[in-house]
Write a structure and sequence with these properties.
four-stranded mixed β-sheet; Acyl_CoA_acyltransferase; single chain; alpha+beta; acyltransferase activity, transferring groups other than amino-acyl groups; GNAT_dom; Acetyltransferase (GNAT) family protein; transferase; 24% helix
């Protein structure tokens, strides 16, 4: 799924892409149908004007209609603004991905 936000003054000002995923049950997890947010971007000229929230809400509404139980998004640890945004949207931290450079 994909949504584009438009402004009458500026044309396209943001977008979000997401995909419904079905995870099969395994020894540690129940089966799950969820939406994974692949990418979201908003024009800096309209930052903090609710465009990003409206885009997430569009995905959330479609996910509910499709019978999904959750939304997921990945955010880099250094991206404090994105972490704060998603937490403000009701997302909670559920996993840490660790790396060891070789």
């Amino acid at each position: 799924m994909a949504y584009i936000a438009e402004s009458s003054e500026n044309g396209p000002v943001g977008y979000i892409t997401a995909a419904i995923q079905n995870r099969s049950a395994d020894a540690l997890m129940h089966p799950q149908r969820f939406v994974y947010v692949n990418h979201i971007a908003v024009d800096p000229r309209v930052a903090r004007m609710g465009v990003d929230s409206a885009l997430v809400e569009s995905v959330r509404a479609e996910a509910l209609e499709a019978g999904c139980a959750s939304l997921f998004a990945d955010v880099w640890d250094f991206n404090i603004e994105a972490l704060a945004f998603f937490e403000g949207q009701g997302f909670g931290r559920v996993q840490h991905r660790l790396e060891q450079r070789l």
